Amino acid sequence: MFILILLALVASVLLAVQLARDPGYILVAYGNYTFETSLFALLMVLLLLLAIIKLVLSLLGWLNPFRWRSSKRVKS
């Protein structure tokens, strides 16, 4: 486990150095609209968006009334 964590840290440092040298450039154009950002910013936004979606789905699963009914039936 320690070796995997160490490898992940080394890989992240190498990626950070590469992104500092050349941050990349993303341009998405659709019709009259354009979206410009760096690769790093896009990756961070995507990771944040995935985390938010996972949190919302977890909350919806926790608040699901059908789950409450099935758990009450099993206990009875």
From TrEMBL:
Determine the domain of life of the protein's source: Bacteria
Q: What UniProt keywords are attached to this protein's entry?
A: Membrane, Transmembrane, Transmembrane helix
- Give the transmembrane ranges: 39-63
| Protein name (database record) | HemY N-terminal domain-containing protein
- Species for this entry: Pseudohongiella acticola
